[in-house]
Automatic annotation (TrEMBL):
Residues 563-586 are annotated as: Disordered. NCBIfam families: PRK06183.1-3. The lineage of its organism: Bacteria, Bacillati, Actinomycetota, Actinomycetes, Mycobacteriales. This is Bifunctional 3-(3-hydroxy-phenyl)propionate/3-hydroxycinnamic acid hydroxylase. Pfam families: FAD_binding_3. Residues 577-586 have a biased composition (Polar residues). Residues 6-347 form the FAD-binding domain. Keywords: Oxidoreductase.
Length: 586
C-alpha cells in the first residue's frame, strides 16, 4: 500500500546537520519530515570537536542541558614531534560567543540529544528505514519517493511532498549527485586507521597530534572514558591486515601497557577528503553538512561546519516558508557558507600536510622551524589563541554594505553624504561578523546570556539609547513587520532609569560586565541589526538606520507583511520559551 503526506521541508538524513536543521525549523513552527535510510542513529563516535559557535546554536534551540553532559570544555590540542616535544599548543581561553571555544564530545550522545529534542514538536517527524529512491521537483515543491521497510521486512512506497528538500545524507549525498552539483577539491590518498575504545587506559584529556615521521598518530581523551587513536598507514599495509585485532594491539603497544584489556568500539580505515560543492542550492533542493563539504579531521571542524550550515539555512527557510521573503533569500545560503567552508577545508588540508610528513629530513626541518617560531610570543599566541581559525565574515548576502555603514550611503536610497566619524575609536565595520554573547542583566534576571534575553529572531540593538526614540515611525513599522525585537543596552548603573523612562516595548539590558560597552567603543556604529543566526546584518549611526534597514530588507528579498501576520510569525517562533543560562551555567 502506498502512503502520502504533506510537509514544509523534507530533510534527507538524520545526522547532526539534518537533526539540527529540523530543530531550528521546528522551533520556528515549520513542518518537517526527516527521512533516514538506516534503522537508527549511528551509535559510534565520528566527530570529536564541538566549538563555541555550535554551542550557541545548541543554546538557541534549547538543548544545552541535554548536550552539555556529553562534552569536555577547554579542549586543548597539542602537536608533538617524534620525540614527544610539544611544537604547538592550541588552547584558546576566551568566551566571546558565550561558551568555551572548544569542547571534545561524544557524537552519538549529542546527536541523540538533538534527536530527542525533536519530540517537543508535533509538526516534526523522523522516519527511519525510509530510503529516498527519487525526487521530483515542480514549480510548487518537491515530492520524495521513499521505500519504507517495516519491522517485519515489508517494503512500501511512501511519498512525501514538501516545499523544499535539504540533502544532509553525508559525503556521498544522492541529493548533490542528483542536482548535478560538482564536489570540487582533493582526496589525499593517505589512509588512517581509527581505533576507539570504551575504557580509556590513559585518562589524560585533550588531543595529541603525534607528528612522528615513523608513524604519525593521534591520541584523544574523550568524555565518558572513551579514547580515540588514529594511526597513519603505510602504503604496503592492507585494510584486512591493519584491522586485525592482533595488528591493532601491536600498533597500540607503543601507547598502552596492555592493549589486550581494551574494549574496542571500532577499528576502521578511512581517508580524508577536502571537497566543497560548487553550489549548495538548485531550485527547491539544497545540500548541507558533509553533503556540501568534506574536510580532514585536524581542526575538529567537520561536525561544526554542518551545524553552521543549519544555523545559516534554518532561519532563511523559515522566513521564506512564512511568506516574509522571496525565495531568492535561499541563494544567500551558498553565498555566505561556501567560502567559509572552503577556508576551513583548506586549513584542515594544510594541517594534515604538516602532520603526515614521513621523510626524516623534512620532519627535522619542520621541527626546527617550529622551535624557531615558538621563540616569537606573537606567533606562539597566534596558535594558542586559535587566531588561525577562519571566522565567518560575510561580505555578500543578507546585509547592508559594510563600507556604507558609517558613511550615510547605506542602501543607495539616500544621497551620498559622507559623515566623518570624529568620535569613534575605529572605522572597522562589524557588518557580516558574529555578534558577541556576553552576560547581561534584565529586570527579571541577572547575568543571563544575551541570546536568552533577546530571543531567537531579529533584533535591533542600540547602545545607550532607545530604538523607539531614535528610529522614525516608518522604520519601526518595517521592523515590526520583520518581527524584530527592539533592544537598548545601557551600563548597569542606568538600567533601572532606562527601564522607567523608555517605551515598555523596548527590552532594556544592563551591561554589568562592561563587555558590550567595550564592543561598541571599538566600533564606529552604536546601532546594530542582528540576524536570527546572531550575525550583524547592518551597523550604523542612528541617523542612518532607516537606509541601512532598507538595504538589509532588499538584500533578503523581504516581502512586506501586515502587522497582524508578523505577530503570528512571532507567536509561532516562541514555541520554545527561552531557557535561560545564568552565571556559572556554562
Ligand atoms: O578538536 C581539535 O582541535 C582536533 C580534533 C582532531 C584532531 C585530529 C584527529 C581528530 O580525529 C580530531
Amino acid at each position: 500500500m502506498d502512503t502520502y503526506h504533506d510537509t514544509d521541508v523534507v530533510i534527507v538524513g538524520a545526522g547532526p546537520t539534518g537533526l539540527m536543521l529540523a530543530n531550528i525549523l521546528g522551533m520556528y513552527g515549520q513542518r518537517v519530515t526527516v527521512l533516514e535510510a538506516m534503522s537508527s542513529l549511528i551509535d559510534y563516535p565520528r566527530g570529536v570537536g564541538l566549538d563555541d559557535e555550535s554551542f550557541r546554536t545548541i543554546q538557541t534551540v534549547g538543548l544545552v542541558d541535554t548536550v552539555r553532559p556529553h562534552t569536555s570544555p577547554q579542549h586543548i590540542m597539542r602537536l608533538v614531534n617524534g620525540a614527544g616535544k610539544v611544537m604547538l599548543v592550541n588552547n584558546p581561553q576566551t568566551e566571546e560567543f558565550g561558551w568555551e571555544r572548544k569542547h571534545s564530545f561524544i557524537q552519538p550522545e549529542v546527536d541523540r540529544a538533538l534527536y530527542d529534542g525533536l519530540a517537543r514538536f508535533d509538526h516534526v517527524q523522523v522516519l527511519f528505514d525510509h530510503r529516498v529512491e527519487y525526487v521530483e521537483e515542480d514549480a510548487g515543491g518537491v515530492t520524495a519517493l521513499a521505500l519504507a521497510t517495516s519491522a517485519d521486512g515489508q517494503v512500501t512506497q511512501h511519498r512525501v511532498r514538501g516545499r523544499y528538500l535539504v540533502g544532509c545524507e553525508g559525503g556521498k549525498s544522492p541529493t548533490r549527485k542528483r542536482l548535478g552539483v560538482t564536489f570540487e577539491g582533493e582526496s589525499p590518498s593517505t589512509r588512517w586507521l581509527v581505533v576507539d575504545v570504551n575504557n580509556d587506559p590513559l585518562g589524560t584529556p585533550n588531543v595529541f597530534l603525534g607528528a612522528d615521521p615513523r608513524r604519525p598518530y593521534v591520541s584523544i581523551g574523550l568524555p565518558h572514558a572513551v579514547r580515540r587513536w588514529e594511526f597513519m598507514l603505510h602504503d604496503d599495509e592492507t585494510e584486512d591486515q591493519v584491522t586485525d585485532p592482533a595488528y591493532v594491539n601491536e600498533l597500540l603497544a607503543a601507547h598502552v601497557p596492555n592493549p589486550a584489556g581494551l574494549e574496542f568500539i571500532r577499528r576502521r580505515v578511512f581517508t580524508h577528503h577536502g571537497r566543497v560543492a560548487s553550489n549548495f542550492r538548485r531550485g527547491r533542493q539544497l545540500v548541507a553538512g558533509d553533503a556540501a563539504h568534506l574536510m580532514p579531521v585536524w581542526m575538529g571542524q567537520g561536525w561544526n561546519s554542518g551545524i553552521r550550515d543549519a544555523t545559516n539555512l534554518g532561519w532563511k527557510l523559515a522566513t521564506v516558508l512564512s511568506g516574509q521573503a522571496g525565495d531568492d533569500l535561499l541563494d544567500t545560503y551558498t553565498t555566505e557558507r561556501k567560502d567559509h567552508a572552503k577556508a576551513m577545508v583548506d586549513l584542515s588540508l594544510t594541517f594534515g600536510n604538516v602532520i603526515r610528513i614521513t621523510n626524516p629530513v623534512a620532519a627535522l626541518a619542520r621541527d626546527a622551524t617550529s622551535s624557531i617560531l615558538n621563540r616569537f610570543p606573537q606567533i606562539k599566541s597566534y596558535f594558542a589563541e586559535m587566531r588561525f581559525k577562519p571566522m565567518p565574515r560575510y561580505t555578500q548576502g543578507v546585509l547592508a554594505d559594510p563600507s556604507d555603514c558609517t558613511s550615510g550611503r547605506a542602501g543607495a536610497t539616500i544621497t551620498s553624504r559622507l559623515i566623518p566619524v570624529r568620535t569613534a575609536n575605529t572605522t572597522v565595520s562589524p557588518v557580516g561578523v558574529q555578534f558577541p554573547q556576553p552576560r547581561v542583566t534584565t529586570g527579571d534576571a541577572s547575568g543571563i546570556l544575551l541570546d536568552d534575553a533577546i530571543g531567537n529572531w531579529w533584533s535591533v540593538i542600540v547602545w545607550g539609547n532607545s530604538p523607539k526614540d531614535v528610529l522614525p515611525l516608518d522604520a519601526l513599522r518595517k521592523l515590526d513587520a520583520l518581527g524584530a525585537r527592539l533592544v537598548a543596552v545601557v551600563p548597569e548603573t542606568q538600567r533601572e532609569w532606562a527601564h522607567q523612562h523608555m517605551d515598555p516595548d523596548v527590552l532594556v539590558l544592563g551591561d554589568h560586565s562592561g563587555r558590550l560597552k567595550k564592543w561598541f567603543d571599538d566600533r564606529p556604529t552604536p546601532l546594530v541589526f542582528l540576524r536570527p543566526d546572531r550575525f550583524v546584518a547592518g551597523a550604523c549611526l542612528t541617523q542612518n538606520a532607516p537606509a541601512t534597514l532598507d538595504a538589509i530588507l532588499a538584500s533578503m528579498s523581504f516581502v512586506k507583511t501586515s502587522p497582524t501576520e508578523s505577530s503570528q510569525h512571532r507567536h509561532r517562533r516562541s514555541l520554545i520559551t527561552a531557557h535561560t543560562h545564568t552565571e556559572g551555567t556554562p
